[in-house]
Amino acid sequence: MSGESEQTHGVERPNAGTHPDHTTPTHKHQTNPEILTAAALAGDRDALRVLWEQNRRWVAAILLAHKPVWADLDDLLQEVAVSVVRHSGELRDPASFRSWLRTVAINSARLAARARKYRPEPKPLVGDEPLAAVALGGGASVALNEDREEGRRLLELAMELPEGYREPLLLKTLRDLSYRQIGELVGLPETTVETRIARARKMLREMATSGGAGRKVESPVRGKVIGSVL
Amino acid sequence: MAPSQEQPDRDLLISRVVDGTARDADWTSLDALALSDQGVWRELAMAQRHQACLMRAVDESIAVALQVELPDEAPTLHFPSRQQTWWIGRWAGWVAAAVLGVAWVSSGHLGTSQPPIIKSNEAGVGSGVVDAGSRLVKNAADALSAYFDKGAEEKRVLGEMPTKLLLRTNPAANGKGYEVYFVRQIVERVEVPDLRMLSTDEFGNVRPAEVDIRPASTDSM
């Protein structure tokens, strides 16, 4: 089942091959995340590289959830990569690697927001070139373009969701992580993650159908105003 | 909004279907909901489409980022934090000088300075030995502990740096875990009348040369 996890040596890991990051190389301890992480943190360069390539996809999603819209995702991910190389060896507990990585990513995104060192003009969240549509053409191309436009609009609307809902939703959208894994990342119980994702989708449906013109979005949990929809 | 036994949360059910985690009971609940409100199917269809479109948008947004590799720079491993090492900068020169002094001392230039004595026990049973304090030393860790205790008693061994320097790692021969080669950093103190460092003379011979080391200011102490 897509999005579910498999058990390997008693340790849950994301399904391999359910996402497009097919560049992930093999490593002798890749099937055992604990050993792989421990080796990486102990200085095994190959293990660290494999670990990075196994995790960078959700790190990118975290950045996407937290970065200012004008910040370049690849620049921020590069900053996180540098931090991984420079500071992951300081970690004592391999089990804390993922939560540490998430914190690094969030800090990078927030620093970017404060520093405003990236270009200030807004840029599209997705590319303008409809790559998939080119090969199909005709009616299929039009349909794909519509889906792309809808996806772009929904992603923009998702960025207006409260942070506590936006992040789990985007992580789930990757299809690599189970509710439990997302909960471990963001430090929430599995049931809370599931509920927040459901609420986020509900809010997104409401925003999409209402057109989102200046409507206030309220947190379903606290009932307070958390932002405005453009 | 809170789900109950009779009326499970509508949004949660829809979300489970979207994620492919809905079970038979969830589908039954959805059917029951739809009996009174056909709109639930429309909402489900919309949620499915949103998910598909959002997945594509997110995939496209992060696709370029997946080309980001780790930079080619050596990882800094297990070094103490800045707070832990502030004194190293001040004392590093003196520690190095002390090490040189120790080397000079132990080469026989200045009297004798014996390390803690580890000798065989009288019975000679097993591999255990007793240290100078007559404690049973079963292994290297015990011996090291005895060394620290004796060194502290003699005010010669100040302690161990909180981190170790990693040299390399190899997969363990049995396939389980790694063997790790590292340097344990132990700080010692010794008082010597003068300091010398090894240098090379004009004939290429290594000879000790006297070193005049004075702190730049009293602050550096």
User: H/E order of the elements of chain A?
Assistant: EEHHHHHHHHHEE
Give the strand order, joined by hyphens, for the main sheet of chain A: 1-2
Strand content of chain A: 5-15%
Oligomeric form of this entry?
heterodimer
Low-confidence stretches of chain B: 75-94, 103-127
Q: Which percent bin holds the helix content of chain B?
A: 25-40%
How would you summarize the topology of this molecule?
The complex is a heterodimer of chains A (230) and B (221).
Chain A: E1 5-8, E2 11-14, H1 33-41, H2 45-66, H3 73-87, H4 97-115, H5 131-136, H6 138-158, H7 163-173, H8 179-186, H9 190-210, E3 216-218, E4 225-228
Antiparallel strand pairs in A: 1-2, 3-4
Chain B: H1 10-19, H2 24-36, H3 39-63, H4 82-106, E1 118-120, E2 129-131, E3 136-137, H5 140-153, E4 157-160, E5 165-171, E6 178-183, E7 186-188, E8 195-200, E9 206-211
Antiparallel strand pairs in B: 1-2, 2-3, 4-7, 5-6, 8-9
Helix pairs in contact in B: 1-2, 1-3
Structural features, described:
The complex is a heterodimer of chains A (230) and B (221). Residues 1-20, 120-137, 213-219 and 221-230 of chain A have low confidence and may be disordered. Chain A has nine helices and four strands, in the order E-E-H-H-H-H-H-H-H-H-H-E-E. The longest helix of chain A is centred in the N-terminal third of the chain and has 22 residues, at 45-66. The radius of gyration of chain A is 19 Å and the shape is globular. Chain A has helices spanning 33-41, 45-66, 73-87, 97-115, 131-136, 138-158, 163-173, 179-186, 190-210, and strands at 5-8, 11-14, 216-218, 225-228. The two termini of chain A are 36 Å apart. Chain B has 221 residues and is α+β, with helices and mostly antiparallel strands. Chain B is elongated and about 95 Å long. At the A-B interface, helix 1, helix 2, helix 3, helix 6 and helix 7 of A face helix 1, helix 3 and strand 5 of B.
